[in-house]
Amino acid sequence: MADWPTPRRIATLSVHTSPLEQPGIGDAGGMNVYIVEVSKRLARRGVEVEIFTRATRSGLPKVVEMEPGVLVRHVTAGPFEGLSKEDLPAQLCAFTNGVLRAEAARPPGYYDLIHSHYWLSGQVGWLARERWGVAHVHTAHTLAKVKNRLIADGDRPEPKARVIGEEQVIAESDRLVANTRFEAQDLVYHYGADPTRTTVVQPGVDLDRFRPGPSDRDRLGLPPTGAIIAFVGRIQPLKAPDVLVSALAVMKATTSSDATLVICGGPSGSGLERPSALMELAASLGVSDSVVFLPPQCADNLAALYRTADLVAVPSYNESFGLVALEAQACGTPVVAASVGGLVTAVQDGTSGVLVDGHDPREWARVLAKLIEAPRLRRLLSKGAVAHATEFSWDRTADGLIQVYGEAMTERRAMIAARLEKCYAW
After folding, report:
1. DSSP H helical segments within 19-143, as ranges?
2. Which of 181, 234, 269, 394 is the most exposed place for a label (fewest CB within 10 A)?
């Protein structure tokens, strides 16, 4: 293996959502968890991380130390509140200005590398790279062309402006980091990404926090008896919690299963238009008494929910990876997930959980009911879930990223040296 350089300091860009926000509501989700966990582990390896994100409230401190070696910088760009993700492209110039100003106040060469997350941040990273002369690594997390191919009923397609923006970022980045080989294939096939610049670095799970333990229904206010099926995530068409509500109604009508569906999360995306739609659906199907809604939970309460659930369901239409599935399995809970995107990697079908083709509530009801009625099978899947989850860790993710960073830095420096040599030759 080549002896790649390790960056001293990284500028991490997360325009539309702050790593300090609670995952599970608004635009905060798995990407937030990814940035937080990776940044902590990079800092523990001696790599300083400065995360630039848009200030969404007045009075926020300009700089927050998340932990030693990790700073979060709040950049003023547009109105503090009432600005949706779709409105943010108009504020990228202001955000870029804030990032460039922060670097200009530092000694030359202060940042060794830029790592951008999501296409909005990639646009900023593309410009900052040219200004600073450093390598730019980009992680897309989700891709518009893939989302539009797998769009949920009633959801809005991603706009053409995002597609063009992604194409630009993918073409200009020094390195692309994909969460799975399937995402890497999507980058190459749908966006023409250079395979030699596209590297798979899988996300991880906090194995110290998410681990097997006792059930705790009282802590979460859940019914004392009956099976618990848990959904954890933002409430939006993409995540498809409505499929589970409909599946629960089918189960109630066709089996004797005594099951409660727990939906943990807040409205997001197009789900903001009708935040009570799931409650209305449950009422119309006559299952309101068997559906419990919980607000987004802190990580420790989330781990308690995973341990308490008999099954965790992830029926998304698309996931770049599916951290919820991995966290649940680390707690020893089998996962029933849609056979799409990164979930095919996050869940080992038949060993740590079950993958379901399509989103027909009747099929989901059949699979869920079969597992609820088979405690021995669930115990076997529980053991497989823990074993599968231990193959993933944030430390491994950080190690993989450091190698990508080193490769990108080496190539970028060589490119700049070649340009200078050419200039001097004239």
Report:
1. 30-44, 92-104, 118-132
2. 181
